[in-house]
């Protein structure tokens, strides 16, 4: 009897998603069709992050967290550009809404849930204050340059950058992100490794996958990303129609995109925290926030060369208050290098405020 090799869901789902994309491309979707494609879209996102985790485990930390963050950001950028290409006045602020939602979800949601997972039993979460503090400072700078300054510049009317200002913000963003990558992987790698109470680095217990498995996962990661971007483009009219039918602000579309993209990474961060690897959770959360701004803004700046319409990046007063409070609270959380359940609750309440105000501004 010949045994067939085992086939995992993470390999089957991206292929099925590509098939569903090919069948639905260029067609008007019914409600049932949109729901089915939505399932495949979510499955492709989960598969993409799974394969990114396999590659990450092969290359080790802190490279692993970097691979995950970049993979998630590629998905996010693909979704944003796909929806912006579809046009419409509501897409002018889509990049801003999605990036800001990603910052709030990562810095408050993922951080809060990870700390909660570690501290809910009365324990104290331990992490490297040097690495976490540097990441938070970079996130705060990127968010201010890209999302706050456009509200106050005067070269163009409204919360928008002029072409020269957008180019400067793009260069500054990619430069800061590049400096972070060098710091995390070369200069001060030890700042981003998990620690125990005694200060020893926690070893990865599971054996890393083989080179063959990592290469296969890299290939399936690319297939999954193609499926995600294509399905998002196909689903974009249904997403916008659902938001309009529910009489919700158009900014909710950006929140939906960020929640969809970051859900698998949230699960990965919580799993790491449960294994007493809170530093990995913070690497995932703050690294994703950095990548979301540092890679999305330059991409959107390039895309704006051929995309018609306005590009609104500046936050309104309410969101600037939430961003400022997030930075202050985050600083007080990471500076001591340890946190309790109280800090996790503060971050989660901030996320709840953002989500509530998103649907009820």
Give structural notes.
InterPro entries: Alkaline_pH_Ca-Antiporter, NaCa_Exmemb. It is a multi-pass membrane protein. This is Calcium:proton antiporter. The protein has 361 residues and is an all-alpha fold. The protein has one domain (9-359): NCX, central ion-binding region (A middle domain of Talin 1, Up-down Bundle), CATH 1.20.1420. The protein is built from eleven helices and two strands; from the N terminus they run H-H-H-H-E-H-H-H-H-H-H-E-H. The chain has helices at residues 9-24, 31-59, 63-85, 94-119, 129-152, 163-187, 211-245, 252-274, 278-303, 317-334, 341-359, and strands at residues 125-126, 338-339. Strands 1-2 form a two-stranded antiparallel ribbon. Helix 2 runs antiparallel to helix 7 (211-245). The relative contact order is 0.21. Mean pLDDT is 82; it is low at 1-5 and 197-205.
């Amino acid at each position: 009897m010949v045994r067939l090799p085992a086939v995992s869901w993470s390999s089957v789902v991206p292929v099925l998603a590509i098939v569903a994309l090919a069948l639905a491309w260029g067609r008007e979707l019914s409600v049932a069709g949109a729901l089915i494609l939505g399932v495949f879209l979510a499955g492709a996102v989960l598969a993409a992050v799974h394969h990114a985790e396999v590659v990450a485990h092969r290359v080790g930390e802190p490279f692993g967290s970097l691979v995950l963050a970049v993979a998630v950001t590629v998905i996010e950028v693909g979704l944003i550009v796909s929806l912006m290409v579809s046009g419409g006045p509501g897409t002018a602020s889509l990049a801003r809404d999605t990036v800001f939602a990603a910052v709030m979800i990562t810095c408050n949601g993922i951080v809060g849930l990870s700390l909660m997972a570690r501290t809910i039993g009365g324990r104290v979460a331990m992490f490297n204050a040097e690495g976490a503090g540097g990441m938070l400072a970079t996130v705060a700078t990127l968010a201010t340059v890209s999302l706050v300054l456009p509200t106050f510049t005067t070269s163009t009317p409204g919360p928008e950058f002029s072409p020269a200002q957008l180019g400067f913000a793009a260069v500054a963003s990619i430069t800061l992100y590049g400096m972070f990558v060098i710091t995390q992987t070369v200069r001060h790698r030890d700042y981003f490794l998990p620690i125990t109470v005694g200060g020893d680095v926690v070893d990865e217990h599971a054996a890393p996958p083989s080179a063959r498995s990592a290469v296969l996962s890299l290939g399936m990661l690319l297939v999954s990303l193609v499926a995600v971007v294509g399905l998002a483009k196909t689903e974009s009219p249904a997403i916008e129609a659902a938001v309009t039918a529910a009489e919700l602000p158009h900014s909710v579309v950006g929140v939906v995109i960020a929640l969809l993209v970051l859900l698998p990474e949230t699960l990965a961060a919580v799993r790491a925290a449960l294994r007493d690897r809170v530093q990995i959770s913070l690497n995932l959360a703050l690294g994703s926030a950095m990548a979301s701004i540092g890679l999305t803004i330059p991409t959107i700046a390039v895309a704006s060369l051929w995309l018609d319409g306005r590009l609104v990046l500046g936050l309104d007063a309410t969101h600037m208050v939430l961003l400022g409070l997030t930075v202050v609270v985050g600083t007080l959380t990471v500076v001591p290098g340890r946190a309790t359940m109280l800090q996790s609750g503060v971050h989660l309440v901030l996320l709840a405020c953002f989500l509530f105000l998103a649907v009820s501004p």
